[in-house]
Recover the amino acids of this structure.
């Protein structure tokens, strides 16, 4: 079975770009959410193989969503990559403290994104 | 000249007539062209990254035309694809050189005042119709540099300039402009105006 990725971002632009890249270059199933609260709900329902999540979002930000997911048994071990618009040390440290496995800074570089995600999921369905 | 497959990523023309076809159709068509370029170029190629950005920008602008949220879309695209969170969209009033803010994000009071205090000169820049990026050092760009503007995009509509997008500082992870930024600004210059002013 192909791996499933949950893409979380309140920006349609970013989601469009990420979806296009994953659909072209991988066989991953894609699910999307537009804020942290929806991400937690969808992650519990869909049990994704990896979560790629923006930090600054309405309702619940990526740090809080990450912390919430890590408190759930079903999501404790799912790789979470945070996508931050600000790559300063404080944000990176906060990201890791919230339980993320990795982070990327915007603007997203497609090649870098694919390499990082495939690094976590390659055995499960990358092209 | 047919240069399909060689990474053509700047097929936008400010003089093109956008009035004959629904704007969202034009943008969807552009998006498909950029998608095709992505298909044909390996990810290692810099032009792939450029086409990816332009694809997402065209699709987002197309949706913005339908949903009538062009200003928010422009700010969102620039924030996510250029990592700039200090910018303003300005409109030049008809028959005068006065400027109004259509929308903005992240501006300091100083930046806002500097734009308001330089309205006449900014209007002249809009009339000049030239995309400016810091670091290119074109003649006549001194005023924009003196205001701390990193990029300036005149907005065309029906072969006239009607406003501008002004970009101040990029986020700290950006060391100046990179691949795709110039093409994205050119795209804004041609398509953001009709998206904003036709609404």
């Amino acid at each position: 079975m192909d791996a499933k990725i949950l893409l979380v971002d309140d920006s349609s632009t970013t989601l469009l770009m990420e979806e296009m890249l994953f659909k072209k270059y991988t066989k991953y199933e894609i699910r999307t959410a537009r804020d942290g609260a929806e991400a937690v709900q969808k992650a519990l329902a869909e049990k994704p193989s990896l979560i790629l999540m923006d930090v600054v979002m309405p309702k619940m930000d990526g740090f809080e969503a990450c912390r919430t997911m890590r408190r759930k048994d079903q999501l404790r071990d799912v790789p979470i990559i945070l996508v931050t618009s600000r790559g300063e040390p404080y944000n990176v440290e906060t990201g890791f403290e919230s339980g993320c496995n990795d982070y990327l800074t915007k603007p997203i570089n497609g090649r870098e994104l694919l390499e990082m995600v495939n690094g976590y999921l390659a055995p499960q369905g990358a092209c | 000249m047919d240069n399909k497959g060689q990474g053509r990523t700047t097929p936008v023309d400010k003089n093109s007539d956008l009035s004959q076809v629904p704007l969202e159709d034009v943008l969807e068509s552009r998006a498909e062209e950029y998608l095709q370029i992505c298909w044909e170029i390996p990810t290692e190629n810099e032009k792939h990254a450029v086409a990816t950005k332009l694809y997402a920008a065209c699709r987002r602008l197309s949706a913005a035309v339908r949903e009538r949220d062009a200003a928010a879309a422009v700010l969102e695209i620039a924030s996510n694809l250029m990592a700039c969170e200090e910018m303003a969209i300005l409109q030049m009033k008809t028959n005068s050189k006065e400027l109004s803010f259509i929308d903005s994000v992240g501006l300091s009071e100083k930046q806002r005042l500097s734009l308001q205090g330089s309205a006449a000169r900014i209007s002249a820049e809009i009339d000049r119709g030239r995309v400016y990026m810091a670091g290119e050092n074109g003649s006549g760009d001194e005023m924009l540099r003196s205001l701390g503007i990193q990029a300036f995009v005149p907005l065309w509509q029906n072969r006239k300039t009607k406003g501008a997008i002004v970009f101040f500082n990029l986020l700290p992870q950006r060391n100046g402009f990179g691949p795709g930024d110039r093409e994205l600004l050119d795209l804004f210059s041609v398509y953001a105006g009709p998206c904003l002013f036709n609404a």
Q: What stands out?
A: Chain A touches chain B at residues 11-14, 16-17, 20-21, 24-25, 85-88, 105-111, 114 (CB under 8 Å). The mean pLDDT of chain A is 92. The longest helix of chain A spans residues 12-25.
